[in-house]
Amino acid sequence: MSVRRDNWGSRVAFILAASGSAIGLGNIWRFPTVAAQNGGGAFVLIYLVFVVFLGFIVMIGEISLGRHTQRNPVGVFRQLAPRSLWVAVGFLGLAAGWGILSYYSVVAGWTLSYVFTTAGGTFSSGISAEKINEIFLGTIASPTQAIFWHLLFIMLTMGVVMGGVKKGIERWSKILMPLLFVLLLLLVVRSLTLENAHIGLKKYLIPDWSKVSGNTLISAMGQAFFSLSLGMGTMITYGSYMHRRENIVCSAGWVCFFDTLIAVLAGLAIFPALYTMEGLEPQAGAKLIFIVLPGLFSQIPFGTLFGTGFFLLLSVAALTSSISLLEVPVAYLVDERRWTRKRATFFCGFIAFFLGILSALSLGSVTGLSHIMDIGPRSLGFLDMMDLFFGQFSLTLGALLIALFVGWKWGTRALIDEFSSSESRSRFSGLIAFQIRYVCPVVLIALLLYLILNPNAFA
Ligand code: PHE
Fold first, then answer.
1. % of the chain beyond a pLDDT of 70
2. Where are the domains of the chain?
3. pTM
4. 279 pLDDT above the threshold of 80
5. DSSP codes of every residue in 58-101
6. In a 3-state reduction of DSSP, which class is residue 378?
7. DSSP strand pairing (373-375 vs 378-380)
8. How far away, in angstroms, is 21 Cα from ligand 1 center?
9. 350 sits in which H/E element
């Protein structure tokens, strides 16, 4: 039942698109904050270990599954394990794609609105801290504002996905990824030349092992899967558009490298800025980006320019990720249900939009949505709950199930045949197979058990 499918134009196209998926709000916003809360340099080192030993390996598994079957995440399991429960892993991925997209686009909507607020010169010198706070609340807590920007962002995402693999995702990744890199480099230089940059840099680079605990491991792992877009079939889907002649291990290596590079650079851009303003301790998530940084932009020369560049960077990074979130359910409807791409994109985009309205309203405008559940000391609103459930838990579970499937059901021989078909088998093939069969499942089961016993472990 194979439908004619699009392919990436080249290996570079795959690497750019997959890096575009991986690099997003997770790198520029989440990574620096989670690192700041978990012992700076110590967290960064643990994170690197997880990327190399878990993320990279699961990514090779996902891409291989996709390329082997040339199918979407549901189709993969239907083909390789017909009439079995494995297909549920594919549907879990679809649900995660929708779930993550719904709130991701709300946050991305705020960044989009800040591009305009900042460019209009709002955060220029003399603005008071109260005013900055007011603007922030006006954006996230006003139902019309929040929903308007969320809708606009989803529509941009739909516009790209509708264009298809080559003319949509590939074309835009080729333009947006280099833009993102240049913007980030400019910001790093600006940040490192701030007067007290060394204070933040020390916090970032010198490990503070006293802050490391079991929870740190969980945060690092959750961050790695989220940041590398693993555990829900994004890389299966992107891998399914990959040519047989391309080298999977190398491509996955590049994607992991770029994703980590951008996260580390984002830390370099944000940490000095964080500690430059006197008496400021790292703040969690939204406040850091939407209150602390505008405060900084208002105090430095050319702040409006750099501020606008920063929010543009975030919006671009978010867009190349959100298209990959939307592409997962779209690919399913196009492949398995024979929908046209246009219809599938509209349908999936609007479901995510309507679901996202609940997240958009959960930051102040509807009290019932701002306190949904308590875990430990934290009270979670709808948006946080979606992030915890889909962005963290479901990706970890998905990654475990995918590793088990590749290692034990599909089999490591088939895996090695797929990823090393074009060249002679490399020395590492056996090692990769061993890791996906034994190391990944054991580590992931241990971490999931820990998480069940300590549900507030995710940062
Ligand atoms: N990796 C993206 C980020 O860091 C988010 C994402 C997760 C995208 C899962 C696709 C799948 O922002």
1. 94
2. 11-453
3. 0.93
4. no
5. HHHHHHHHHHHHTS-HHHHHHHHSTTSTTHHHHHHHHHHHHHHH
6. strand
7. antiparallel
8. 6
9. helix 341-360
Pocket test for ligand 1, best of 27, 28, 229, 258 (most atoms within 8 A of CB): 229
Q: What residues does ligand 1 touch, defined as CB less than 6 Å away?
A: 21-22, 24-27, 100, 226-227, 229, 232, 234, 321, 324-325
**382 neighbors 370 (Cβ within 8 angstroms):** yes
Of 297, 387, 277, nearest to 114 by C-alpha is 297
Residue with tokens 């899967």: 225
- Using left for φ > 0, alpha for ψ between -120 and 50, and beta otherwise, residue 98 falls in alpha
**Rounded mean pLDDT, 265-290:** 72
**Cα-Cα end-to-end distance for the chain:** 44
Q: Tokens 């300590």 — which residue?
A: 454
Scored b (16 or more CB within 10 A) or e, 257-290 reads: ebbbebbbbbbbbbbbbbbbeeeeebbebbebbb
Question: What does residue 81 show for φ and ψ, rounded to 5 degrees?
Answer: -140, 70
CATH homologous superfamily of 11-453 equals Amino acid/polyamine transporter I (1.20.1740.10)
Q: Are 383 and 362 in contact (CB under 8 A)?
A: yes
Measuring CA to CA, which residue among 219, 221, 255 is closest to residue 235? 255
Digit-coded pLDDT (tens) for 8-67: 988 889 999 999 999 999 998 889 888 888 888 899 999 999 999 999 999 999 999 999
**Tokens 């989670």 belong to residue:** 34
CA angle centred on 249, ends 248 and 250, rounded to 5° = 95
Amino acid in position 418: E
Q: And the tokens for 165?
A: 């693999």
For tokens 């699009």, the residue is 6
Could you tell me which residues are beta bridge partners of residue 375? 378
Matching residue, tokens 């992991």: 256
CB 259 within 8 A of CB 227: yes
